[in-house]
Amino acid sequence: MFEVKIVLSTVDTAETAGLIARTLVTERLAACVGILPPMLSVYRWKEELHEDQESQLIIKTAADRVDALMRRLKEIHPYEVPEILVLPVSGGLDAYFDWVSSETR
Question: Which residues of the chain have a pLDDT value below 70?
Answer without folding.
Answer: none
